[in-house]
Amino acid sequence: MTDTITSGVSEMVDLGGGTFLMGSNDFYPEERPVREVTVGPFSIDRHPVTNRRFARFVLDTGYVTLAQRHPSSQDYPDADRELLVPGSSVFVPPKRPVDLRDIRNWWAYTPGADWTHPEGPASSLDERWDHPVVHVAHADACAYATWTGKQLPTEAEWELAARGGLPSAPYAWGDQLNPGGRRMSNTWEGQFPYQRLNSEHDRTSPVGCFPANGYGLFDMIGNVWEWTATPSQPDRPRSCCSPSTAEPEDERWIVKGGSFLCAPNYCRRYRPAARQAQPADSSTSHIGFRCVSR
């Protein structure tokens, strides 16, 4: 492991790049094989982009996210016409055990859900300004990054940063999910998706609530999945926890880090090596992003 931190600033952490072992042979097939990867120096946001920061971008530019736009029937010819309205996919926990093979049991396309209304029109950002922004599609994240003069990280950059200097540990903080019983990230405890135990956060949490990794980066694991600048390959991993009407040939991008919905009984993707392919036009209540500068 040759990457090093070269300096630190209040909003970003500078990494010296280097060579590291990317992936894992111990969990899901799409993480294999472990391979040696080299990346150059870069700086990365200390935490995911928050609602507060995204609001500044929108106020400055007038930007309208994909979830706030009217979908076109030409783009979604098989969609229910009643659902061709602005909206996004929201996690709706069932009240009892459900078939884990069908993600429609806990996801609902919700008209009026967007980054300002995370659970739909009746919700708001009150007391959530310092939570990660969600309901952002890949293009929305790229637009914000361009406004700041930054970019989205590649998958390799993201994974090197998430490992925090631990080259082979399964988790960003070491070998145990909850070392000494301490929760290290905002992930699901209990039986997903109907029972959540011992959590003060029902959904996202304010950035920085959990310990930083060895590089001083917060929420690299859990809280929200994060978009990357790496497109998915033809043998791409499919998403285990997001609804999609995308066709197999549609544009997809790798997301990393897991979210508050990752649970031991369903999705153990709360690790640096974990990865999923997300349709570019999808926005959900558990995907956000952070930026890099090279």
Summarize this, please?
With 294 residues, the protein is an alpha+beta fold. Helices cover 11% and strands 18% of the residues.
Structure, described:
- With 294 residues, the protein is of the alpha+beta class.
- It has helices at 51-61, 138-148, 155-163, and strands at residues 5-8, 12-15, 18-22, 35-39, 42-45, 87-91, 107-111, 225-231, 252-256, 275-279, 287-288, 292-293.
- The strands form four sheets. It has a four-stranded antiparallel sheet, with helices on one face.
- The longest helix has 11 residues, at 51-61.
- The chain is globular, with a radius of gyration of 18 Å.
Straight-line N-to-C gap:
20 Å
Largest sheet: 4 strands, antiparallel
Give the rounded overall mean pLDDT: 91
- What string gives the helices and strands in order? EEEEEHEEHHEEEEE
Helix tally equals 3
Q: Which structural class do the helices and strands define?
A: alpha+beta
The percent of residues in helical segments reads 10-25%
Low-confidence stretches are 1-9
- Alpha-carbon Rg, integer: 18 Å
The number of strands is 12
Strand content: 15-25%
In terms of quaternary structure, what is this?
single chain
Q: Could you say which overall geometry the principal axes of the C-alpha atoms support?
A: globular
Strand order of the largest sheet: 1-2-5-12
